[in-house]
Design brief:
Blueprint: E1 3-5, H1 16-19, E2 28-30, H2 64-68, E3 77-83, H3 90-100, E4 106-112, H4 115-121, H5 129-137, E5 144-147, H6 155-160, E6 165-169, H7 183-187, E7 191-194, H8 202-211, H9 213-222, H10 227-230, H11 234-293, H12 298-314, H13 351-368
Parallel strand pairs: 3-4, 3-6, 4-5, 6-7
Antiparallel strand pairs: 1-2
Helix pairs in contact: 9-11
Length: 369
């Protein structure tokens, strides 16, 4: 929304530097030219000294309620968040996301303290200031990065960057001889609290590395770093390399065990299938055997048929019914008479007669032949 200013209004709140630039007795329309939030993420966020806010229109003081309603409509609400941002992690990103989404139309400025200030008031950092600046520039929620940000915010700094609100977690931050470096911001009604992410912080990450120092030293030795680069002694280097060899052997043994388990599982699965098939074949064989050799089996019927035929073939033929019968017993057939046999009623009277009968019997046989 354009702001109309005159000489008479300069005494009612418009900065003299701005009213002095306006011609006396005239009315001029001044529009806000503040940078707008980033609409594309194809490039990193700019630095403040590259795209500073040169807007000449006055920035009226806003309340949090007004900003949440979306006013003013002619410019974004400029929100400032600062920090060290060493080993940039998800906790940092979530805090910046909260600061960015505090109001419907926000322009997020992020101040990053230099190495000198950080080492003086907080301690040594893992990443240097250039690395920390670049990490913030490539965060999607950041619209502008302020390098070498002050440790304590001054009115001059707030006015220079046209800051409407300061976002930070609500825990009092005691540093630089103050119980809370954001105390005067809170009293001015410019402080908007954000929530910390539990379980993740730069100190936690460093604690993990220090706690598992040997693990990470061995890891980097495996990746090709030298003992000198890792500041590791000769004895520790040999110890770490030996432990790496032991771990490799353990990994090989583990792989062999896994393969063995897999092989045994396959064998068990196949043996189960074989046993199942064997049981099915066994049942089939037993069924066929009983069907063939059981009490009512086909083999018994076949055997009975064949045994009947054999008995029929081996049984003697019956005598003809037309043969003469004796008078004494008509039901019985007469006994056959053989001429060569001697008569039972007339035994031979002498040995000579017996021998003569035998010789006659032999001659009779030869005649039959």
């Amino acid at each position: 929304m354009p702001v109309l200013t005159t000489d008479a209004e300069s005494e009612t709140g418009i900065p003299k530097s701005l009213s002095n630039e306006l011609p006396s007795g005239t009315m001029e329309e001044i529009e806000h030219t503040c940078p707008q939030p980033r609409l594309t993420l194809t490039a990193p966020a700019p630095f403040a000294d590259e795209t500073s806010c040169q807007c000449q229109a006055p920035h009226e003081k806003l309340t949090i309620a007004q900003a949440r309603l979306g006013t003013p409509v002619d410019r974004p609400v400029r929100v400032y968040a600062d920090g060290i941002f060493d080993l940039f992690h998800s906790g940092h990103a979530r805090a910046l996301m909260q600061a960015k989404t505090l109001f419907p139309n926000s322009y997020l400025l992020v101040g990053v303290c230099s190495d000198d200030l950080t080492h003086k008031f907080k301690g040594f950092t893992v990443m240097n200031e250039t690395e920390r600046y670049e990490a913030l520039r490539h965060c999607r929620y950041v619209d502008e990065v302020i390098r070498d940000a002050p440790w304590t915010l001054t009115p001059e700094f707030l006015e220079k960057h046209k800051i409407d609100f300061v976002a930070h977690d609500d825990i009092p931050y005691s540093s630089a001889g103050s119980d809370d470096v954001y105390k005067h911001i809170k009293e001015a009604g410019m402080f908007v609290p954000t929530q910390r992410t539990e379980g993740i912080s730069t100190s936690d990450i460093i604690t993990r590395i220090v706690r598992d120092y040997d693990v990470y030293a061995r890891r980097n030795l495996q990746r090709g770093y030298t003992a000198k680069e890792l500041n590791v002694s000769f004895i520790n280097e040999k110890k770490y390399r030996f432990q790496n060899q032991v771990d490799k052997m353990k990994e090989k043994v583990k792989n062999v065990e896994e393969k063995s388990k897999e092989f045994v599982y396959k064998v068990e699965e196949k043996s189960h299938d074989l046993i199942q098939k064997w049981e099915e074949k066994s049942r089939e064989f037993i069924g066929n055997f009983l069907e063939l050799f059981g009490p009512d089996g086909a083999w018994k019927q076949m055997f009975q048929e064949r045994s009947g035929r054999m008995l029929q073939a081996l049984s003697p033929r019956q005598s003809p019914t037309s043969s003469p019968t004796r008078g004494r017993s008509p039901s019985r057939s007469p006994s056959p008479t053989f001429p060569w046999l001697p008569n039972k009623t007339s035994p031979p009277s002498s040995p000579k007669a017996a021998s003569a009968s035998i010789s006659s019997m032999s001659e009779g046989d030869e005649d039959e032949k």
